[in-house]
Amino acid sequence: MCVNCLSVSRRAMLAGGGALAASLATGTASARIPPASMVPLIGPGYRPTDKDEVGIWKLMDRVEEEVSGSNLLLKDKPTNDYVRELIGRVGGPAAKDMRIYVARIPEFNAVMFPTGFTVIFSGLLLRMRNEAQLAGVIAHESGHFLRKHQIRQWRDMRMKTDIFSILAMGAGVAGGAAGVYTGDLVRLAQLGTILTLLKYSRTLEAEADAMGLKLIAEQGLRPMAMSETWDQLIAEFDASARHRRRRRRERRIGLFETHPLPETRRADLRLSAAEVTVPGRAYDDGRARYLNAITNIRPMLLDDQVKLNDPGASQYIVETLARDGWNGLLRFYEAEIWRLRNRAGDDARAALGYAAAVQYPDAPADAWRWHGIMLQKAGRLPEARQAYTRYLAMAPNAPDAPFIRQQLQQ
Amino acid sequence: MRRLSLLIAVSALSLSACVQTRQFADVEFTPPQGDYKLLVMRPDVSVGSVTTGGMVEPRADWTETARANLIAALKAQQAERGGNVVIMERRDSLPGIEPETVAELERLHYAVGQSIALHRYNGRYLPTKRGKGLDWTLGQDAVRLGQRTGMDYALFLYAEDSFASTGRVALQVLGVAGCFVGFCAPNIGGGGQFAYASLVDLRSGEVVWFNVLQAGTQIAGINMGDIRKPEGAAQMVDRLLDRMKPGRAVRQRLKERR
User: Fold this and answer.
1) Is the ipTM of this complex over 0.85?
2) Domain spans, chain A
3) Which of A23, A83, B76, B111 has a CA positioned 20 to 30 A from the CA of residue B181?
4) Which CATH architecture has domain A326-409?
């Protein structure tokens, strides 16, 4: 990316170099931000008064209208009530002002908008093992709002692009007067400006992590959960890459990232979690509460993930969730992963999975259906009949029910 | 959010543009005249200031003023043509029509508009649409809205305007001054108008007319219009909507008759 930057002529460097030093103050080491230093910058009922912020808020009204009316949003009431209640607990002083929407997008992500509404992706709800982990992500997003990150980033960008433009123009005019070409130098400064912008973005992410950690710890949720989220995510990336026959996931270069590297965040969160933990205080995972809240949508979450056909990641996610105990649902979707990949030998693996799933009392109807199909393929017809009968009993109105009934009669 | 691909599209028209419009119409399109009923979907307006570094900073007060001005200008202009205009200020301002219905139609139109931008303005011409003028439709959803509201046409309107900040203008002055020492940057840009209008025939559901307006200079500080002022808004409405051309087939028949 930066091959050109090295070929700046010495004359050019001398002609305008001094001016650029200012915009190149990137710095490399990004220090961990101690959670104790994070105080919310806004109180309850915050409304902007500065002209730039008012303008951005105004623009966001329409965005929120669009988001809140989107048909991507999950309608499940228990889930929505639950996340609303959760942001109410970990939202700090702005807890009552923030809005939260759950979008059906099978990815690990969440976004906070400048006006205090956040969108969390369904892929996040799939991956979280307990309330503390989910609260950690929501609190991180709250942290962005409480620390006024969007407007601070906007102002940072405005200031730096202003400086860059003035310097670039100044360098050009000075270079013109002195008869040297400063284009290379300007390009170098442009890179420098971009790097400082990214650096600032990473600082804000680190701030949000620290703020979020403080918020969940204050609510008695186990602080180490946030770091564990990153354990899971890093392992999932690796598992996904392994199955796609890449030796390793893409190498990332910290300098060019908007977020700190996952490994950095994990390490910092672990250190910070130790800091915010009050000895003697009981911290809670809230696992039962969490599972109870998402129980209606969990099959859908798993289904969406499995259909991404990313077997490495899907298998990792299923196994991670199964660390809290296998059940029929998880076994069924484990089998689905391999059936959908459909490479040599995958059908046998899937058949084993369906057979395992139906051992659990909570096996979904489809597990019985696929178990039946696999048995039928293997020529074990009496057992297949039993499985199909069970399927029809559980899902008498399934689209393929008449077809299967007809088969059974033969 | 709604402007991105169209902006790219229009920049292909010309770089040194001053005021440009480019319209397409259904081959059988006749500009509405006489006693027609026009429903103006809530106009999407944004006005901002161009920072020294070239970013557009949205300004709430300017946007509000501009929106009010544009609505007033639109009413005045349509009154002249004899049309009855209903302007939606919000999604729920049509009695008896759910805001969701309006939202769905707005989204659909956005997708269709993107397609028009891509295949009519952006150079990705489709062989199947060659010679067909404007051949896009919003389908039965639009027809139903027409039936329920008794409206003949719906107009979708998007407008943005921006103005160079003092810093941007100073930078421009420096760029021009540089010309005397051999470093010339006389057109750094900053500020300008971009707008589009799309007319949907609610009896057929078809997009019958589409127009894109770009007005501005490459010199920061010199504007070709200002929708923050009533006369500027009237000017934009005039540029965007006042010179509707009939469709090709209609024009041909007119010629033959002569």
Assistant:
1) no
2) 47-275, 326-409
3) A23
4) Alpha Horseshoe (1.25)
